[in-house]
């Protein structure tokens, strides 16, 4: 079994011998959020978050834009849960705060004849989503060595890992 030096997963090799004596092996490991398709993970996570009592859009969410760069509010019915799932995935990947999330979800604004500029996303939406994820116990605030931000809790990590495991196709190798 080959594993590069950054490999820290629990890997198992399943060896099967067929009737003709041919030996085949399959490497099975724990599926990580980073190994599955992000869009599929976010959609399935949003469906699971929708079932939670703690995660629900505030009354003002149907009128608000997600940033100054947008002309209109979101039209999808489940946009709040999709944003919450996307934020949860970003927090899983690295410690991140509201400011960096605003930059990540921002976009370019058309200013007529003037050149386009990049604008940050709405801080209120991201803050409220993070507060709801904290209330659900999926993320928590942490400050170490002067760096503030939100980190994933063990409950949030197992929540996303279970969803990622369900997405991974049977027989695919996760290395």
Instruction: Give helix % range.
Output: 25-40%
Give me the side-by-side strand order of the main sheet.
Answer: 1-2
Could you tell me the radius of gyration in angstroms? Answer: 20 Å
The helix-and-strand class reads alpha+beta
Structural domain count: 1
Query: Which fold name fills CATH's third level, the topology?
Result: Arc Repressor Mutant, subunit A
What characteristic shape results from the CA principal axes? globular
Using the 3D structure, state the CATH architecture: Orthogonal Bundle
Low-confidence stretches are 1-13
Q: What's the total count of β strands? A: 6
How much of the polypeptide forms β-strand, as a percent range? 15-25%
What is the element string, with H for helices and E for strands?
A: EEHHHEEHEEH
SS element count, helices: 5
CATH class: Mainly Alpha
Largest sheet: 2 strands, antiparallel
- The CATH homologous superfamily is named Winged helix-like DNA-binding domain superfamily/Winged helix DNA-binding domain
Overall mean pLDDT: 83
């Amino acid at each position: 079994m080959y594993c590069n030096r950054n490999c820290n997963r629990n890997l198992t090799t399943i060896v099967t011998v067929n009737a003709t004596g041919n030996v085949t092996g399959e490497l099975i490991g724990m599926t990580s959020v980073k190994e599955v398709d992000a869009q599929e993970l976010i959609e399935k996570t949003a469906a699971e978050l929708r079932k939670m009592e703690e995660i629900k859009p505030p009354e003002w969410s149907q009128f608000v834009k997600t940033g100054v760069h947008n002309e209109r509010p979101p039209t999808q019915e489940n946009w709040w849960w999709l944003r919450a799932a996307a934020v949860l995935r970003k927090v899983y990947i690295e410690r991140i705060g509201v400011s960096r999330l605003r930059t990540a979800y921002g976009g370019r604004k058309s200013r007529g004849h003037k050149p386009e500029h990049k604008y940050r996303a709405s801080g209120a939406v991201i803050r409220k989503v993070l507060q709801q994820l904290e209330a659900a116990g999926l993320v928590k605030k942490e400050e170490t060595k002067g760096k503030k931000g939100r980190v994933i809790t063990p409950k949030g990590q197992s929540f996303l890992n279970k969803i990622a495991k369900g997405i991974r196709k049977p027989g695919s190798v996760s290395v």
